[in-house]
Amino acid sequence: MVDIRGGEFFSELQQMVESLRDKVDVRVVFLDADDAVLVRRFDSVRRPHPLQGDGTLLDGIAAERNRLAAVRESSDILVDTSGLNIHQLANLVTETFAEQGRAGIRVTVQSFGFKYGLPPDADLVADARFLPNPFWDPDLRALTGEDARVSDYVLEQLGAGEFLDAYLAALRPVLDGYQRESKRHATIAIGCTGGKHRSVALVRELAARLGTIPGLAVSVKHRDLGRE
């Protein structure tokens, strides 16, 4: 594991990784987290950020993000640890690398609510807010996109089927390219207002369709389900 404290070694990291790629199978995992989470973590251990100098903790975090931008951009796997404890992180990494031996690429299809912010680890983001919101139907409001009644309502709306057909067709060359470039993990996010109805239903259907494509190991994640 390498972080900003690596000094001279850290500055040569990318060159070393590229050199290793010519000889062995190398995967760079980049661990990230929201600023607020990082502040809480530093506060909990009562340590200053190594780059903050005479500034604030947020100044140090910003400086680190700036230095790490190129490494983050070129990483093979990006993991947002904001909502993970150490055991969940360990399980996620284990599952990710275990899948690499069985599939060309591990795809996470994730629903989310725009009002809670974009998922920072998403490679591709789509917007489900073009569909009528089941929230305004009193019979569906308390349910979620995992319920058949909500799912049927969403998928039967004008444009839902066309969107899924077109999006799947657009994803195929992207995922093929990821495999050619040895990108072993991709996160495809679909959002709606609260991440409860439309995005959940579309994610479930898209994941089912992606699961029929050879070489993909597909999992589903509903980031904001239950927040309301």
UniProtKB/TrEMBL annotation:
Residue intervals of the RapZ C-terminal domain: 106-225
Signal sequence, renumbered to the chain: none
Keywords associated with the record: ATP-binding, GTP-binding, Nucleotide-binding
PANTHER family reported for this sequence: RNASE ADAPTER PROTEIN RAPZ
Taxonomic superkingdom: Bacteria
Protein name as annotated: Nucleotide-binding protein
Species in which this protein is naturally found: Agromyces marinus
UniProt-listed InterPro entries: P-loop_NTPase, RapZ-like, RapZ-like_N, RapZ_C
Domain spans labelled RapZ-like N-terminal: 2-99
A Pfam family assignment: RapZ-like_N
